[in-house]
Automatic annotation (TrEMBL):
GO terms for molecular function: ATP binding. InterPro entries: DUF3107 (IPR021456). It comes from the Bacteria. Keywords: ATP-binding, Nucleotide-binding. This is ATP-binding protein. It comes from Naasia aerilata.
Amino acid sequence: MEIRIGIVNSPRELNFETTQPAAEIEKTVADALESGAKFVKLLDGDGKVYLVPAASLAYIELGSEKTRRVGFVA
């Protein structure tokens, strides 16, 4: 699933692919915001860790979890 994160006062957004389900990501972000944590910790498909300042989150866009088809449809 593709994740796009907008950061306040930054012209670029953070994009990466992850294998985590959308519900797990939503819970991680919600828990971090509710607890007052300084950072939201997310993992991508390759095992890289992204620490995003919770106070600087503008938006988080979660892509669909469907897999893409390869080939032609007749």
